[in-house]
Structure formats: structure tokens, C-alpha cells
Specification:
about 375 residues; alpha/beta; 7-stranded parallel sheet; 6-stranded parallel sheet; about 15% strand
Length: about 375
């Protein structure tokens, strides 16, 4: 069997700390821990948010030309120096995590040099279009995405529900599940801290409903606001906690001044915030998986999420939380009322969430991905369509 040498191409690795960058950094650390050579190609900035794992070769990039998303970057190709680095590394497998121009150049290079290529689907790109007035190009985007990923031998997708959504869009390659994991020791009900709750003004009897994510409107922040305010109007014990930062923060604070805002939290502080909450409400339907939902589950929270690809693969309606119709504020408020009004149900859902989260251990998940890599090496290299 060929030696496994992985070149990873991504549009996000260290300049923004989000679910994609953390997942890929964890993968690189795992692979290197298994003695598998890895070289990462992606954009960066002068002061990255993340101290990355492995060696990163910089790709040329530009700020994402969409209002409110300027902190993200889009690669614009592959420099001569980066291509020399790629040739010197001599990969046997190229993993493309982002289908931007850098990923396109990597695909072209792999085909030209008969190197195996696989892809992973991390961001449900088209679900963002309506928030930025781009619905007119959705058809073209799907044509490109399906062509790009169908050029890969394997495509790794976070959930079965995401696969079911991609097939009607023309994805007909070998799609395999690469789920996300969680550190169940870090995110644990044991991290609940009553003193921390009190410091924010929450009492022991308050029912704290929490949102954790980047604060942008496409995460359905207004559905969170509406649902909690509807409940709080009839039950003064219902309180809102917002964890995260982003361009929508000031406007949300103006609309929801009664909520408590922690800003961006990580590690032990984030684990404490989850565990010190009572319900996790995440209305976003743009996720391919929902890392924050899994972290909330591991922390023992009932989860109210959108009945959409990604989230519904984690939350079983009536068992460890509830599913609500995407963008239906009244349905979210109704489902939140069910959870708020029944303490015994919350306790049962809490235990079920924690139990389900214990099945998502990072070592096993990335180990299965490595097995898929090795299977791909035994398959024919991609043909050159350029």
C-alpha cells in the first residue's frame, strides 16, 4: 500500500476560530500523532485567532466580499511558491475542505499528477444566499458545487441528513459520514457553577435559555430573541444568555437588552457557560452538523433546534430535545414552552443528551476518516477534466 501523505487545502485554518478551523486543526493533530505526514495549505492574516497545528503554507486570499462576513477570507489560487511546496511534499492524497479557487487549483494539480483527491463538505454555502440577496445565483452555485465534489473520489459529510439533502442537488459521488466529536470531559454537566450564574444575575430557580455561536443574523438570532421573549412575558423565571460575538451583537442587544451577554468564550469558560444553563436554543438551519449543539448535549442540556440537516441528526424530538420548523418563530416559541413548563421532561432530556454525546469521541471519528483515506488510496486516481 502507498504511504499516506496528506495535503490539506482549506479556506479557513487559523485566521478565524470556528467549527471548521477547530475540526481541521484537530484532524491534523490526530494524523501527525499517528505518524502520518500532513501539510496544510490555506489563507492567513498577520494576527491569527488560532495557534494552529502542523505546518501551514499560505495561499493568496482576499476578504470575503459580502457585508458582515469580511473577517472570513477566500483563497484566490495557488502561488508559485505554494505549488513548489506541494510538489516537494509529494502527497499521495489531497483533501480539499473548501471548494474555492485554492481548492480548484488543488483539484487541477491532483488530476494532472494522478494523485488521489477527496473532499469534505463543511459549510452549507447556498443556505446563506438569501441573507445576502444572492438567491438568483443559487442554481449556478449548486451546479459548481456538485461538479466540484463529484470530481472527488470520496466526499466526507457530517451527517446522513446532509447526504440526503445533497443527493437531489446532483451529488452522486461516494459520500461518507465524517461526524464531529466532542470532548466529553471538558463539556460536562459537572462544570455547572451556581456562583457563576449568580454573578450574571441568575437565581437558582431561573430557567436560563442559552444561544452559543457567532452573532450573525443568518444564525436566526431573531428567532431566538422572539422565542425567549414570548416565554419570559408569561414566566419571569425564563432568562436569556447569549455567548459569542459578531457584527449583529449591538443590534441584538438593542432588541434584547434584558439578555446577558458574555462575549466570546472558550475552553473551561465556555464549558461552564453551557453547564450553567438549563436549555440550549439554536434556531440556525445553515449548519452541516452543529458543533455547538453537540457541546450543549455533552453538557447535559435539552436542545431546541431547527428541523434541518445537521441539527436533526443530533436531536431526537421528544427525547433529548425538540425540533422546530426552520424560520417559524411561533413553532420555536411553542416547542420552548413545552420544555420550559415541564421540569421532569427537562431532566429526562438532559440525561438523554449527555448519553447520546458520549458516542461522539474524536479519536474514533478521526480514526474512521483515516481508514477512509487508506481505502481511497486503493482506488483509481481522478481523471483530468481540465
Amino acid at each position: 500500500m502507498k504511504e499516506l501523505r496528506v495535503a490539506l487545502f482549506t479556506g479557513n485554518y487559523n485566521h478565524i476560530k470556528d467549527g471548521v478551523s477547530l475540526t481541521l486543526n484537530r484532524l491534523v493533530k490526530f494524523l501527525e500523532g499517528q505518524g502520518i505526514p500532513v501539510l496544510v495549505f490555506g489563507p492567513t492574516i498577520d494576527e491569527p485567532e488560532l495557534e494552529h497545528n502542523g505546518r501551514l503554507v499560505t495561499l493568496p486570499s482576499m476578504r470575503m466580499p459580502v457585508s458582515g462576513r469580511g473577517e472570513y477570507r477566500v483563497t484566490t489560487g495557488m502561488s508559485v511558491q505554494a505549488e513548489k511546496e506541494l510538489e516537494a511534499f509529494n502527497p499521495t492524497l489531497i483533501h480539499i475542505a473548501t471548494p474555492d479557487l485554492g481548492g480548484l487549483r488543488a483539484l487541477k494539480w491532483a488530476q494532472k499528477n494522478s494523485v488521489q483527491v477527496v473532499g469534505s463538505y463543511h459549510t452549507h454555502f447556498t443556505s446563506y444566499f438569501k441573507y445576502y440577496g444572492l438567491t438568483a445565483i443559487e442554481f449556478i452555485a449548486w451546479r459548481y458545487l456538485s461538479w466540484f465534489y463529484n470530481s472527488c473520489t470520496h466526499v466526507y459529510v457530517p451527517s446522513k441528513s446532509m447526504i440526503e439533502e445533497l443527493i437531489p442537488q446532483g451529488f452522486d459521488t461516494d459520500m461518507r459520514i465524517w461526524a464531529r466529536g466532542v470532548d466529553t470531559n471538558l463539556f460536562s454537566p459537572k462544570k455547572r457553577d451556581e456562583a457563576w450564574r449568580n454573578s450574571l444575575g441568575f437565581s437558582e430557580d431561573d430557567i436560563v435559555v442559552t444561544f452559543v455561536s457567532r452573532l450573525v443574523w443568518e444564525k436566526e438570532l431573531d428567532t431566538f430573541r422572539y422565542s425567549v421573549q414570548q416565554m419570559a412575558a408569561n414566566n419571569k423565571e425564563v432568562k436569556a444568555l447569549v455567548v459569542g460575538d459578531g457584527p449583529a451583537k449591538e443590534e441584538l442587544q438593542a432588541l434584547m437588552p434584558e439578555a446577558k451577554y458574555t462575549g466570546f468564550l472558550e475552553d473551561e469558560d465556555l464549558a461552564k457557560a453551557y453547564a450553567s444553563s438549563d436549555i440550549f436554543l439554536f434556531p440556525s438551519h445553515t449548519e452541516t452538523f452543529g458543533n455547538v449543539t453537540l457541546e450543549a448535549m455533552s453538557s447535559g442540556l435539552p436542545c431546541l433546534v431547527a428541523d434541518a440537516a445537521g441539527s436533526k441528526s443530533l436531536v431526537e424530538h421528544g427525547v433529548n430535545g425538540c425540533l422546530a420548523e426552520p424560520e417559524n418563530k411561533d413553532d420555536f416559541a411553542k416547542k420552548l414552552s413545552l420544555i420550559v413548563s415541564d421540569k421532569d421532561l427537562r431532566n429526562k432530556m438532559s440525561k438523554a443528551s449527555r448519553q447520546k454525546a458520549l458516542n461522539y469521541e474524536w479519536g474514533e471519528i478521526n480514526g474512521r476518516l483515516t481508514d477512509n483515506y487508506k481505502e481511497a488510496l486503493n482506488e483509481p486516481a481522478p481523471k483530468n477534466y481540465f
